[in-house]
Amino acid sequence: MKNNNEATVHIKQCYLEMFKDYPDVVDVNTMCEMLGGIHKNFAYRLIRSNKIKHLTYGSTYRIPKLWIIQYIQEHKNICEISTRMIDGRNNNG
Fold first, then answer.
1. Burial classification of residue 87, based on how many CB atoms lie within 10 Å of its CB (0-12 exposed, 13-18 middle, 19 or more buried)
2. pTM for the model
3. 10-33: b or e for each residue (b if 16 or more CB lie within 10 Å)?
4. Residue 27 and residue 25: Cα distance in Å, rounded?
């Protein structure tokens, strides 16, 4: 399907451009930063409610960058924002 292919390409572009300075897997503090400085308690709520997929190592959470991008795409209008970032456009055109 064309739409699935376009979505896959878009996710790959977001992965390469959006958080390019972050490692592939991050901790909760870094995830908070990536999500605009959300409070750590809210981040744990997102994780514990499985709204953000995560990995658990003992009592430590690790979150792949891809899963953060997927969360943003599901809960924000990331298409417009990330397209501007990738194309180098801003709000003024």
1. exposed
2. 0.69
3. bbeebbeebbeeeeeebebebbbe
4. 7
Closest CA to 61 of 35, 22, 27: 27
Whole-number pLDDT of residue 28:
97
**pLDDT tens per residue, range 18-60:** 888 999 999 999 999 999 899 999 999 999 999 999 999 999 9
SS3 (DSSP) at 54: coil
Cβ(64)–Cβ(80) below 8 Å: no
Token duo for residue 20:
């390019």
